[in-house]
Amino acid sequence: MWFRNARVFRFTKPFVISAEELEEKLGTDAFKPCGPQETTRQGWVPPLGKHGELLVHSANGYHLIALRKEEKILPGPVVKEAVEEKAEAIEMEQGRKVRRKEKEEIKEQVMLEMLPQAFSRNRRSFAYLAPQDGVLVVDAGSAKQAEDLASTLRKSLGSLPVRPPAVEQAPIFTLTGWLNQTIDLPSAVVLGDECELKDPSEDGGVVRCKGLNLKADEIRNHLEAGMEVTKLAITWDDNVSFMLDEELGIRRLKFGETLQDQLDDVEVDDAVAKFDAAFTIMTLELSKLIPGLLEAMGGEDRSAIVEE
Question: What mean pLDDT comes out for the span 38-66?
Fold first, then answer.
C-alpha cells in the first residue's frame, strides 16, 4: 500500500470524523456499475479490494478510502465507420445528402446502440484523511484528478473544508533558488538527476533534463538565461524520493529501502495485516514529510486557516 503520488489538501478549519461516520456517509455513494445506456459512473469501493468489505480502512487515526470510476470505451474509428455506413444507406435510399447536423444525430444513436456491448475501463483512486494532521492526501498524478476525488468526497460528506496548501513564497522561486544556489538547500534535501526548466516569457520554451548532474554548466547556463525550475527531482531525508512540481504536487513517489525493510520486518502472513502495516508506515512517513516540505518551501501561509 504505497502511494505513487501525493496531492495534499489542507483543512481550513478543524475537521473530525470517525471511521464509522465516514463509512456511513460513503455508503450512500457506493460504487454501482454503469447501466446499459451510461458512459461513466463512479463511487466508493473498499480500499482493500477483495480482502475487505468496508469502505474505510483506518489505522492510527488515518482513514484510507478508494474511489472507483468506470468508463465505457467506444473506439472512435468503429463509431465513425458505423456512422458512415448509416449515412450512406440513407443517401442511397432517399437520394439526398446527409448533412453534418444529421450525422451528429446518427452518431448519438450509434453510440447508444453500442454502449451495452462496449468494453469498460475501471480506475481506482486512493486517498486518506488525516484529521490530526489537518490534511487530505490523494494519490493522483494531476491536480485535476485530485480535485475530482475531493469534489466527490465533498458531495458524499456534505462539507469538506479543504484547499491546496499555500506557502509564503512561490514554489518556482524556491525550486529555482535551490538549483542556482541563491537559496540554501535544506539539510533534508538531496537533489536528484532530473528537472524541468521553463522560460517565463509568453512564448517561452521548456527544457527537460534527465540523468544529468543538475549543477552542471549546461543547467547553469539555462538558469542564467532566465529560465525557472518548474519540476525538480529530490530525495527527502534519505527515505523518500519524488518529483516536486510548481503546484507542490509530489509525483513518482518512491519509498526507500529503510521503509521497505521496516515492512519486511513485520512478521505476518495475512494480506490484510500486511496492507495495514504498509499503510501505517507510509502515513507516518508522510506525516513528517508534508510539514517539513512546506517549511522548506518558505513556510506555510496559514492566514486562511481557522485554528482550534
Answer: 94
Name residues whose C-beta falls within 8 Å of residue 243's C-beta, 6 or more positions apart in sequence.
192, 194, 231, 232, 233, 250, 251, 252
Rounded CA-CA distance 61/211 in Å is 40
Taking the C-alpha atoms of residue 90 and residue 87, their distance in angstroms, rounded to an integer, is 5
Residue type present at position 280:
T
Q: What is the mean pLDDT of residues 132-160?
A: 96
The residues with which 198 forms a beta bridge, in sequence order, are 206, 228
Q: Are 54 and 107 in contact (CB under 8 A)?
A: no
Q: Which residues pair with 242 in a beta bridge?
A: 234
Torsion of CA 148, 149, 155, 161, to 10 degrees: -100
Look at residue 308 in the predicted model and tell me its pLDDT: 67
Taking only the tens place, the pLDDT of each residue in 124-133 is: 999 999 999 9
Helix or strand (DSSP H, E) at 233: strand 228-236
Residue 35's closest CA among 118, 96, 91? Answer: 118
Dump pLDDT digits (tens) for 248-276.
999 999 998 888 888 777 777 788 888 99
Question: What is the spatial distance between Cα 75 and Cα 4, in angstroms, rounded to a whole number?
Answer: 29
